[in-house]
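Let us practice reading a record.
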Amino acid sequence: MGRILINLVLPILGLFVSTSVVAGKLNVQSPNQRVSLLELYTSEGCSSCPPADAWVSKLKTDPRLWTEVVPVAFHVDYWDYIGWPDRFASKQAGQRHRRFAQYRHIRQVYTPGLILAGKEWRGWFNNPNLRLSQAANVGKLSLQVDGPKLVSNFAPPQDTPANLVLHVARLGFGLETDVRDGENAGRKLEHDFVVTGYNTYPMQIQGLNFKVQGQIPESSHPAPREALAAWVSSGNDPFPLQATGGWLKD
């Protein structure tokens, strides 16, 4: 099953340390039906993680990508002490993972850990075919990006909580690491959907909709290809209400 983290601490929302804000253009909108956010929690220091990383990478060519499922790979830092500090890892990724346990959406914090539409998903270990359940109507989420600027709008049903938060993750593809120590010593690891930048924004009510204007996350590790993923949650609960995403274009 991989490595399990026992200690749970109170997380704090924050930003990745980052170096680059250059971006392209993007204009995407979800359907009314909920799009499944698929979150992989992984670490280059965990010997059980490379197969999960490779499986998530295959979703690049899945016809449901962005329209029915939005994958993101959060690299956690809580295994860095066992011999190999993951260069993509961040404290915020580990904090988000722990928050799922604190809100009882998952039973344990472990890697590789997969969370599908806000719920623990262990099916990958026995059946690698990604089956998406019939989605409820939750409203459309749109995201427009022009250079560093972003605008997002969410039009949910009237019974949606008022304290909504927009999450935006910058994703890197085609990233490689030659691991020289730890459980994966001597291996070349290949990564896609890596969260290289992550910001949260409180959404403002305008009429019946929720809106955000801001800047996209900066990237801590420039990648050959990039995409953006966005999703909405309520307050500190990490459960995603709706998601969207797409490739950043030059």
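A brief commentary: Residues 22-247 form one domain.
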